[in-house]
Amino acid sequence: MLVEHTAIEGVKIVTPKRHGDNRGFFSEVYNRRTWLQAGLEYDFVQDNHSLSAEVGTIRGMHFQTPPFEQAKLVRVSRGRVLDVVVDIRRSSPTFGRHVAVELSAENWRQLLVPAGFAHGFCTLEPNTEFLYKVTNFYSAPNDRGLAFDDPDLGIDWPVAPDRAHLSDKDRKWPRLRDLVDAFA
């Protein structure tokens, strides 16, 4: 397993080993013992899987507030995405900054997203399947989001905001400066 640091402390790119032959490949995408040896202590409690049919589908920017905050380990099993995380921890020196990483079935990268970050992605290929592990269960009352197109964030999405495929809910999230329950 290769662990790479990003420009924001705690956000890491994790690439599991793949062992291939003429039949295909095998990969251990998560092993708690290996993670602990690498200093990554996360207790994942739920796995989620989404399919986005259209290129330019944006899901995000999502997070849950305490006490149901979630760290996430995200990856793509089919297709490609631009995956984006925004630091929403008000006391952080990187508050409001973001990291964007391409994840694909081909590059086999995963992104580790600590609690205190808004997370979202944009599909770059049709029929993209996205998987993620989370450290806390879903809680509807704690479900929040951040406007994906907030100009203060400066995210360079690969699709124009008016051409993005979004849920109605994702179109209505507030800008970062209006976020009342960002992490202290």
TrEMBL record:
GO cellular component, one term: cytosol
Signal peptide positions on this chain: none
Catalytic activity: dTDP-4-dehydro-6-deoxy-alpha-D-glucose = dTDP-4-dehydro-beta-L-rhamnose
InterPro entries: RmlC-like, RmlC-like_jellyroll, RmlC_Cupin_sf
GO BP term (any one): dTDP-rhamnose biosynthetic process
UniProt key word Isomerase: yes
Pfam families: dTDP_sugar_isom
UniProt-annotated catalytic positions: H62 (proton acceptor), Y132 (proton donor)
Listed EC numbers: 5.1.3.13
Keyword field contains Zinc: no
UniProt site (Participates in a stacking interaction with the thymidine ring of dTDP-4-oxo-6-deoxyglucose): Y138
GO molecular function: dTDP-4-dehydrorhamnose 3,5-epimerase activity
Record-stated family: Belongs to the dTDP-4-dehydrorhamnose 3,5-epimerase family.
Job of this protein: Catalyzes the epimerization of the C3' and C5'positions of dTDP-6-deoxy-D-xylo-4-hexulose, forming dTDP-6-deoxy-L-lyxo-4-hexulose.
Quaternary structure, from the entry: Homodimer.
Name under which the protein is recorded: dTDP-4-dehydrorhamnose 3,5-epimerase
Gene: rfbC
